[in-house]
UniProtKB/TrEMBL annotation:
This is Cell division protein FtsL. Keywords: Membrane, Transmembrane, Transmembrane helix. The keyword Membrane applies. It comes from the Bacteria. The chain crosses the membrane at residues 21-42.
Length: 104
C-alpha cells in the first residue's frame, strides 16, 4: 500500500515536470513566476514608499513646530515692553519731529 502511494507520487511528479518543461507549459510557468516576483517587488517598493512618506511627514511636522516656536520667540523679542527696556538700556529716547523722515 505504501509503495503504491510512493509510486503514484513519483508518477505525479514526473507528469508535473513534463507539463512544466514542455514547449507549452514552460512559457506559462515562466510567466507566472515572473508575475509572482514582480508582485513581491512592487509590494516591497510600496512598503518602502510608505516608510519614506511617514518619515517626511514627521519631518514636516517638526519643521512646522520649529516655525511656531520661532514666531513666538520673534513676538516676544518685538514686544513693546522688551523694546522699551532695550531703548532704556541703550539710552534711546523718542525721536523729535525733525528726526522723523517719511518715505513716500
Amino acid at each position: 500500500m505504501a509503495s503504491k502511494k510512493s509510486s503514484e507520487k513519483i508518477q505525479l511528479g514526473k507528469k508535473i515536470k513534463e507539463i512544466i518543461f514542455s514547449s507549452q507549459g514552460f512559457p506559462i510557468f515562466l510567466s507566472f513566476t515572473t508575475l509572482a516576483i514582480l508582485f513581491v517587488l512592487f509590494r516591497m517598493k510600496n512598503v518602502e514608499m510608505d516608510y519614506t512618506i511617514s518619515k517626511t511627514n514627521r519631518e514636516i511636522e517638526k519643521v512646522i513646530m520649529d516655525n511656531k516656536e520661532l514666531k513666538a520667540k520673534k513676538a516676544r523679542m518685538l514686544s513693546a515692553d522688551k523694546l522699551r527696556k532695550l531703548a532704556m538700556a541703550h539710552h534711546l529716547d523718542q525721536p523729535t519731529q525733525d528726526q522723523i523722515i517719511v518715505i513716500p
